[in-house]
Amino acid sequence: MNPAFSVIFLTTLIGAGQGLFLALFGAELSGYAQGSAERGFLAIGGGVALLLCGGGLFSSFFHLGRPERAWRSAAMWRTSWLSREVIALPVFM
């Protein structure tokens, strides 16, 4: 198996962003964020999670054969896992 670097970056960045978001959400649910310093920590962490997910979404365009046709990546959602990822990730973000 020899995946393209764009797919490696896509899965790594999106996974890190979603994992960070879930960890921050769990910290907030457990009552960790009571003071203003902790709220700032959660806000910065949320921003980093958005940047990681956005970077992963951006790297998905490099996996396309012709990046100028990026709009078509969402049109093939029935047959392509990458298309479903391009649709679902902005909803998550």
Number of helices: 3
The structural class is mainly alpha
The profile of the biggest β sheet is: none
Helix content: 55-70%
Q: What ranges have pLDDT less than 50 throughout 5 or more consecutive residues? A: none
Q: What's the average pLDDT?
A: 82
Cα-based radius of gyration, to the nearest Å: 16 Å
Account of the 3D structure:
There is one protein chain. The protein has helices at residues 5-29, 36-60, 81-92. The chain is mainly alpha-helical and 93 residues long. Helix 1 runs antiparallel to helix 2 and helix 2 (36-60) runs antiparallel to helix 3.
Summarize the structure.
The protein has 93 residues and is mainly alpha-helical.
Features:
elongated, 3 helices, 67% helix, 0% strand, 93 residues, mainly alpha
